[in-house]
């Protein structure tokens, strides 16, 4: 069973940057597509960025040009580089495979505030 651990969140001022990481254990990392999701208080969990097993990426319009996702198959990790952060990016961020839908990790809190 795949276990997911997200890290790297924190408090940052508007315009700042954060780099999130997701460590996946349990095998099969290379064959999965991976994605980052976020959930703000009182809102649904939305997909913001994805990366296929072949390395192709897609982004939600709200983060396009500001966020970049990548994967390291040797380290079984997925990262999300977030630049030019806005207050509306405040949320708990999670990673998962859109197709496999593993059990969710605990997420990592990102708060953008002055």
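-> sequence recovered:
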């Amino acid at each position: 069973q795949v276990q997911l651990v997200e890290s790297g969140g924190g408090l940052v001022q508007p315009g700042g940057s954060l780099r999130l990481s997701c460590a996946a254990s349990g095998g099969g990392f290379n064959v999965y597509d991976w994605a980052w999701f976020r959930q703000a208080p009182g809102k649904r969990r939305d997909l913001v960025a994805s990366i296929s097993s072949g390395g192709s990426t897609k982004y939600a319009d709200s983060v396009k040009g500001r966020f970049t996702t990548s994967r390291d198959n040797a380290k079984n990790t997925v990262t999300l580089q977030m630049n030019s952060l806005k207050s509306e990016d405040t949320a708990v961020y999670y990673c998962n495979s859109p197709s496999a839908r593993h059990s969710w990790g605990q997420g990592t809190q990102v708060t953008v505030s002055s």
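The beta strands are 3-7, 10-12, 18-25, 34-39, 46-51, 57-59, 67-72, 77-82, 91-96, 108-112.
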